[in-house]
Design brief:
Helix content is 37%, strand content 14%. Strands 1, 2, 3, 8, 9 and 10 form a six-stranded mixed beta sheet that branches. A two-stranded antiparallel ribbon has the order 4-7. It has one domain. It is an alpha+beta fold. About 11% of the residues have low confidence. A hairpin with a 3-residue loop joins strand 9 and strand 10.
Length: 278
């Protein structure tokens, strides 16, 4: 069974986590706590340069990352699989399969964006929110659909298989389908109840993440600027969840290929600590 087959059989699969344009209008939408309609009205729009700058600043704040370490992600570390190296053009591949509608994908993307920003650059990253009828409804997040990522160190392969309104979106490639099938859907090392679940992240076939590391609850009802502001406070739940997840993802990226050992992001003190735990 392929990724597309899984999506067709059910409305959406989300893994149980941890325990189971006027400038004034744009300013309001981004920086004021508003209604659900104010948040969702940004769906599909390109992330503002100001917010992108904030995210890069957080991603590369070594002091903040070191103080948080694994944070709230302690109970959901990725599974080591040690498969044949997943490499494209001589660079290891981080593969993500998710859906815009999925609230667990929503919280996962925050941490994955921060982690990937430590190795390269996003262009045209877009806003989206999770489904309005699901749990943790309308969670503010990003979509990798229509976005692009560049890095001299790694490749990023993504598929968002559903829109926020649960309509088909991207069709996974043959490689994405094969990887999803082998390391997720048909992986007997995973509990049967979560096989085939999203979000799914494959770190160059060296380790995988099935489901979210943390709960989306902390970001519900907040807009992107509020979530970003809270990440600056290392003791906040948002920072503990998102930066903690980002740190785990970063450690897994660093462990995915020997070519990454000298990368600046892989020589932070918290990386060694996470490797010992994982």
């Amino acid at each position: 069974m392929l990724v597309g087959d899984v999506v067709k059989k059910i409305t959406i699969i989300c893994a149980v986590v941890v325990a189971l344009v006027a400038v004034g209008v744009l300013y309001y939408l981004l920086f004021m706590r508003g209604s659900v309609s104010a948040i969702t009205s940004l769906d599909g729009q390109e992330v503002s340069p100001a917010l992108m700058s904030q995210l890069y600043s957080i991603a590369n704040n070594g002091t903040l990352a070191d103080g948080i370490g694994i944070g709230a992600a302690a109970s959901g570390l990725p599974l080591v699989v040690n498969g044949s190296a997943l490499v494209l053009d001589g660079k290891p591949v981080v593969m993500y399969v998710g859906a815009d509608a999925c609230p667990y994908c929503a919280i996962t993307r925050w941490g994955l964006v921060i982690a990937l920003m430590r190795f390269g650059n996003f262009t045209s990253l877009h806003y989206t929110t999770s489904n309005a009828s699901d749990v943790f409804a309308n969670s503010a997040t990003f979509t990798f659909y229509n976005s692009s990522y560049s890095s001299n160190l790694l490749n990023f392969s993504e598929a968002e298989v559903m829109t926020t309104n649960e309509k088909p979106l991207q069709t996974p490639t043959a490689i994405q389908n094969a990887t999803f099938g082998k390391y997720n859907l048909n992986n007997t090392a995973l509990p049967s109840e979560i096989r085939g679940s999203i979000p799914f992240i494959d770190f160059a076939n060296k380790s995988i993440q099935v489901g979210a590391l943390v709960s989306p609850e902390a970001i519900v009802g907040k807009n992107w600027a509020e979530i970003t502001d809270e990440m600056h406070n290392g003791s906040s739940t948002v920072a503990q969840e998102i930066i903690g997840s980002a740190n785990v993802f970063t450690a897994r990226i660093c462990a995915s290929n020997s070519s990454l050992r000298q990368a600046a992001a892989c020589n932070q003190s918290y990386i060694a600590r996470i490797k010992l735990i994982g």
